[in-house]
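Entry for the shared binder. Reason: the reviewer on the internal report wants the predicted structure included alongside the sequence.
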Amino acid sequence: MITVLLVDDEPMVCAHLRTILGAADDVEVVGEAHDGAAGVEAVVRYRPHVVLMDLRMPGVDGLAAIERVAALRSPPVVVALTTFDADEYVVRALRAGAAGFLLKSTPPEDLVKLVRVAADGHTVLSAAATTRLLGTAGARADGRARTRDLLGGLTGRETEVLGCLGEGLSNAQIAGRLHLSEATVKGHVSRLLDKLGCANRTQAGLLARDAGLR
């Protein structure tokens, strides 16, 4: 059973999401909160697998809440809820530790599928959205040297895989490009995430762009 926590300042949005997710046999909405501070408290209380977090809320907003959740021991997967798909605020959320984002206009038939994807540890971003977001997220030149120093601990193959993550490629696409098995790619991704201290492949992709990898 995939447990989900809803965090949105609009109760009607939570009610809508609860209705859709509640219809799935393998998903349970365990709680909801209506501001970021209460959302973090609810994460500690319910220990959900997935958190759907609105980004714009009064008081403690979703971005600050994502940062606090990411700092917890064994944090859940956090997926940002947003109205706009190419927003600098979304990029900041991904840097803070969100595993991806969902548009509030996501069709009901897709919502449960995407929650399952998130629970399995995969990034919740369409290929088009990944390319668009990563393409606007490069660091300034004065930050690239610091980022490249961080990448110095990677092997040559891990650096190649990281560059592919910077393009928003899936494991299958990386395997095809580098002539590797998907299992091998998965291993490289896991190790480079650990070395870089990244919470997920989206953060690693942003780091690749920061370093100027293409």
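Summary line for the report: The first strand starts at residue 2 and ends at 7.
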